[in-house]
Design brief:
Layout lengths: L1 E4 L9 E11 L8 E9 L11 E2 L5 E2 L8 E8 L9 E7 L9 E11 L1 H21 L1
Antiparallel strand pairs: 1-7, 2-6, 2-8, 3-4, 3-5, 3-7
């Protein structure tokens, strides 16, 4: 579980995540052992582990075919959110509820980039200002 707070003055509509999933321990069996990512956006102090249930479809990793100690990089986008200033984004990685779950996975090298289009828009406005300034000279 990871809780991130939006401390900016911008409401984000998407977040891009990059992280590594590490197969720490593996037991025999062919059953799908997928590590999934769920999220939720909550007002500060209102979130809970059980409430972060929105799945991120591109973030599921099946640990069954992975060798112990191997790593796979995951790139996922949480789209169509409204993460306002002061709100919390809860990220929860979990296995499906299966009996005799013996696979263990870990998360490493997590990077979260909120709505890159915002930064592109800011850069564009700065460039327009620069062009306008240059024309006046």
């Amino acid at each position: 579980m990871l809780v991130l707070t939006n401390t900016s003055s911008i409401t984000y509509s998407e977040a891009i995540l990059t992280y590594d999933v590490i197969a720490l321990r593996k037991r025999s069996g062919t059953q799908d052992r997928s590590l999934t990512l769920n999220f939720g956006v909550f007002d500060a102090g209102e979130g809970s582990v059980g409430a972060a249930t929105n799945p991120v479809p591109t973030a599921s990793v099946n640990l069954s075919p992975m060798a112990e100690g191997s790593t796979v990089q995951v790139n996922a986008t949480i789209a169509s959110i409204s993460w306002a200033p002061g709100q919390e984004l809860w990220l929860r990685w979990n296995f499906p509820n299966q009996a005799n779950q013996h696979h263990v996975g870990g998360i490493n090298n997590l990077t979260v980039i909120p709505e890159p289009s915002t930064y592109a828009a800011i850069f564009g406005l700065v460039m327009l200002g620069f062009v306008a300034w240059r024309r006046r000279r």
